[in-house]
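Q: My collaborator sent me two sequences in one message, no labels, and asked for predicted structures for both. Can we handle them in order? The first one she listed is below.
A: Yes, handling them in the order given. First sequence, followed by its structure tokens:
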Amino acid sequence: MHQTRIMFLSSDCGALSQTKMAQVGREAFEQTTVSQLPFSELELSKLAEEFGTPLYIIDERTLRTKVHKLKQGYSGYKGPVKIAYSIKTNFTPAVLKTFMSENTLFDLTSTGELYFYLRCGGKPENVIYTSVTETWEEFSEVLRSGIRLIVVGSSNGLSNLMGIAEKEGYNPKIMIRVDPEVGVKAEVRASRRNGRFGVPLSNNAGSLDCAAGLLRRIMASHLEFEGFHFHLGSQISDPACFLNALEKLEHFIAKMRREFPHLPVNIVDIGGGTPVNYGIRVPTPLEIGSMLEPRLNALAATLGSEFTLIVESGRYLSAEACVLLSRVLNTKNFGDQKVVFIDAGYHLLLDAVLLRQEYPQLIIPSCENEINEKIVLAGRLCDTYDTYPLSPASKVSGAEIGKLMAITHAGAYSIVFNMPFHCQTKPAIVMRKANGSYKCVRQHQTNEQLFEEEGGNLV
């Protein structure tokens, strides 16, 4: 894949400025040279002493840098570009407030996320609301909160939204979530034939759940049609799927404009999928953006207007900003194999077992000389599946009882999945602010707090 990608860039150099080409090359080089650890070993040792382990540590500056890099990746698109943070990835209030100060949009999917967002001071006009269940009650609460940009992905969902809007006198702007049904090379695919997310661009044998059917109903109503949204997957390794999706979308728009000559397309939201380097080379935002920009500009020219491009992200924006700090509690030796037990299990990093995600792990203090031993890294849970796969970037040589272990790239889909298996309490979260100071942004949960949360004082 990487060889194909290099060939694409070199053969299409004329479409890219020398500055952009230099940026692409520099970012690709940085992927292989930047340290996987955003904190010094001394910092981590002091934090472990003060707050104990396990402990999440988030770097504010990295969060901000990722927003800028993602937007920079699409700087060649001639229209406006906005970045939307998918709150499901990490809803820690300190993280939300950081992204709010960067003027990002927010992709919300539940009224619980909406509560967190508003409590953190978020503005309704910066929300893209994309429900999965699309119920009357949910849309009613969303519209009452002031949110006006809503994505629909089913005929029933559209009926509910139109019904509550008419009953209460709301006038939301509607986007249609489409499934382009393209091939996607990704860790998790979200586009497939008869998939659960969105509606197909094809007619689907006359089904009400198709893009044309939804669009006709919107155009016949008093509601405003705003544009299209699609999401192809997570950890996309080949950006060609975006090109295929945009081509299919353009053909669909051309077809519908024969029926609705003045069909507006003010927004095209290409969803997420920007991959994170967990130790294996992946396409960077600049590489992906450089591939997509000519297609996006051509689409805008065909439409006769420069639509707002929305690029969503959760994993890319948050993953690399966080370290899960743990401590080695025990070891067992079986000849050339060594089992290392740490105090963080999959209750704190569920993707390690769900997706067998290979998070980079680093021993602190690091071992200067590599020891030739096979390491099996295990969590503290009494569960056969509580083991961590090692990343190509992992450096676990010299793991001994009492040493620290930093699990990097832990900011996405980790804190949101914390669970009390074995009566495990939630760890504290500490943030290193942009000025270098540290602040505890979530207190360590006590056993008594967990007991009360589980109803212990109600019986």
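Q: And the one she listed second?
A: Here it is, processed independently of the first:
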Amino acid sequence: MAWFHGASQSTTPSSATGVLLVNLGTPTAPTAGPIRRYLGQFLGDRRVVEACPAYWYPLLYGPILTFRPRRTAKLYQAIWTDEGSPLLVHSRRLATAMQARLGNPESIRVELAMTYGEPSMPEAIRKLQEAGVKKLVVLPLYPQYSGSTTGAVWDALAKELRMWRRVPELHFIADYHDAPAYIAALAASVRAAWDRHGRSHLVLSNHGIPVKYVELGDPYQAQVERTTALLTAALGLAPDEYSGCFQSRFGPTIWLQPYTDDRLLELVGQGVKAVTIVTPSFAVDCLETIEEIGVASRAKFLAAGGDTFTLVSPLNESDGHVEALAAVLAGAGVTVPARP
């Protein structure tokens, strides 16, 4: 019995470099069963919920996974497409576009993995192993580092790589929150929205994390603030022309504030009737951007007296996003062909 696995000696010619794009994950279907499996894997990760297992697991495997999947299924059903979950659809398209940008897969091979769900980390990494990669560059699709996201990618990566017979040269990109090409792509997306819908107060809504994670050393908040400063400077905004806030909190723990919905209501109270929402911490569209912001937050803002709510989609598989990630990879030592 072999303890470690390696690529077959009869594989096709090796790819010199493997690029692994990693996103969070998604249920395989918008129904309670697949959502329960996905949430169990996601919320059962100690990186995501840093709580005492004796306290957390009875809650998770009791009331949370009993009742939450049914409620969440209705939200997923509202955004599900003919191709599947938006997060997976856009992530796949992005990976395909990155492969086209980087050229021949026998030189640079791109694979997509999800930390939770499919395509799984083991599946993607073994495809790269079979391709004979000697250098592996891992790019989590989280511009700002958090232990609950990027850290979880590292855990899954290390778990799989420890079974490789020949461990590749490894470059792990922990964040790209201040990469000039990323900031430029975000700024271009906001300007394009303003060209179509008119300029309005910019709300930068980022995924939240519990305050205690920051207090224990997580750099996420500082990196979000750096992204905010660079983006608003690129757009030439004065302090009263934008708001930074956080969304997607879960449970009774105190999360980073101000909360997006609270800030939107404050803006209406201050006489701001038109807003543009951008979500810099999300690489592609997902439940949190499409439903939470695009439907629920929009409804709250308009019901409170707002008039215009413009949502800027994440960068998704846009040319600007592909070029930004190509620049990040070039900074990590990947030989990126000149743009055609």
